Amino acid sequence: MSTTPATTPPKTARWAIGLWWTGGVLLVLFGVIVAAVNDHAGVRTIGIIYVLIGIADIVLGRRAFGRDSRARSAVSVLTLVVTMLSMIGAVILGTAVAMLLLASLFALGGSLMSYRPTSEPWFNPKS
Q1: What residue ranges are annotated as transmembrane (predicted)?
Q2: 26 with 48: CB under 8 angstroms?
Q3: pLDDT per residue over 55-87, tens digit each?
């Protein structure tokens, strides 16, 4: 493994950002649908929270792709928490949160790809 940082992103890093963005867009879409369909204020608030989480996923993924290792850690923790919550929600609510679970699994796949040995020189250029 070379000590010089890579000048072009490896394939796994490009997959990571694509999966993070896909997960973020699906979270935003899920949040908009939840907020638009329901009349209950609490459910609308949950939809708005999912929109904000999706936007944070996209923004942090972009910062991480810009070689910020702190943003990579932040987006990885965020997607792990959202995945855990969506799995709990899928058990409790059934298929109503299938899109949420799918979105969080896409983003979790991006987090896994970002920590592959081939992606490490791109996301952590100082090592």
Answers
A1: 12-37, 43-65, 77-108
A2: no
A3: 999 999 999 888 888 999 999 999 999 888 888
3-state helix vs strand vs coil in the chain, percent to 5: 80, 0, 20
Are 16 and 99 spatial neighbours (Cβ–Cβ below 8 Å)? Answer: no
Q: What is the DSSP string of 33-52?
A: HHHHH---HHHHHHHHHHHH
pTM attached to this predicted model: 0.85
Please name which of 55, 57, 61 lies closest in space to residue 114, comparing C-alpha atoms: 61
Q: How deeply is 62 buried, as exposed, middle or buried, from its count of CB atoms within 10 A (0-12, 13-18, 19+)?
A: middle
Q: How far apart are the first and last CA of the chain?
A: 11
89 φ, ψ (degrees, to nearest 5): -65, -35
